[in-house]
Design a protein that fits this description.
The chain is an alpha/beta fold. The protein has helices at about 1-20, 40-55, 70-85, 100-105, 115-120, 130-135, 160-165, 175-185, 200-205, 220-240, 250-255, 270-280, 315-325, 325-330, 345-350, 375-380, 400-410, 415-430, and strands spanning about 30-35, 60-65, 90-95, 135-140, 140, 145-150, 155, 195, 215, 215-220, 260-265, 285-290, 295-305, 340, 390. Helix 1 (about 1-20) packs parallel to helix 3 (about 70-85) and helix 17 packs antiparallel against helix 18 (about 415-430).
Amino acid sequence: MKKSIACVLCFIAAAVCMTGCGNKKDQKNDGIHVYAGIDDQIMKNAVNIFKNTYPDIQVTLTEQEISDNSEELYEYDQQLAAQLMGGEGADVFLIQDYWDIDKLLAAEAFADLTEIYDSSEVFDDKDFRREVMDGGVICGKRVFLPIECRIPLLITTKEALSETGFDMEKCTDFDSFIEEAGRFMLGEGYDRRLFRMDITASYCLDWAGYPIVEGGEIVWDMEDTRKYYEWYKEFYGREKGIGQYMFGDLTGAAEVRDKNCLFENSVYMLDDINIIRALHTAGEPVVLPVYNKDGGITAVIDKAVAVRANSENMENVRKFIEILFDGDTMKSQGACRGAVSVRRSVNENAFQNLLKVPFLSEQNGFPLELPMLGKEEFNAYYAHADQISRVVYRRGWGSSFREEMSAFLRGEVSYEEAAENAGKKLEFYLSE
């Protein structure tokens, strides 16, 4: 499968270079083609509104079919990406975080949406989180428009912090966080894992805000990340060997409750909220942001819309984007997947949509009737999004970079050797 995906990615890059690189087509505006994947309900909602608003414009909607074969879905979506970026597919689409975005950006596959963003009244709204929206500006061009992002929040209880002596008040930036986390792991009272899953420690590389590659150039200073990797090695050596990651069934809440780990980190905000609700039955829930090295919070873009660079329907694209980012569309049924929305009102509206009974059966020993969150507690949770100071997206070089650095975590090579090999991988990636 990996080989076939790699071939698809190579085709994407080649196709884009032939059809997308600065090769704008004459505008026809005789229709619009929209791609909506499995989880792209907001795109489908926007298409329905667009059809009602502009009945004379032909709309083509391509949807990805639900399948039990995850590998088949993944390969299909990669092939569809090749079609989209090769200049033959949809005008508007949601970028998938496993596409090789850096290479597509280098190939100028995405249209610059600066003019649409600056001139459309829909974006002249204080409801938008500007710092998140500006995460789509790369090298001076607004190449995609974020819709949702994720922020690193760790969940535990006040009782667990007291029992372990972990002082969250000291964690004001990333350095102080790993110092306190290291003190906890090396302390005499260490009786539970720091995190439920190793992936939480791995994600810290993004959350910490270390610059690695910017504008197609390596800016990484290996000394900047030494302290992180030395801490991660301690964590890796002590706590690796965890089972399958489970989502949405309160597994993490149960692990915190049962003193198997100190912190749980979920993927989506609504999962976090259910964990908090569950932990109210075991103590007083506490949320700790993982602050970056500058003391702010780094958001990772989870969902963003982009436009094919050589689209012939840019005026129709403008109309569609204005509908897509309208407040009512973004608050429509199924539009938000439970992350931090670029519109504050979407998350504020989410409080009204919380289900009193979120599960069909009791989960991991928690009662079916979980306590409701108070509005004040709900607002305090989402207020962490106001601390976003940096926005990143998943990078195509990430897996190979982590693979090289893992040799240091396993004790096979020195930090210097692992960093040198990782740097060579980055150079090779950027030269392709």
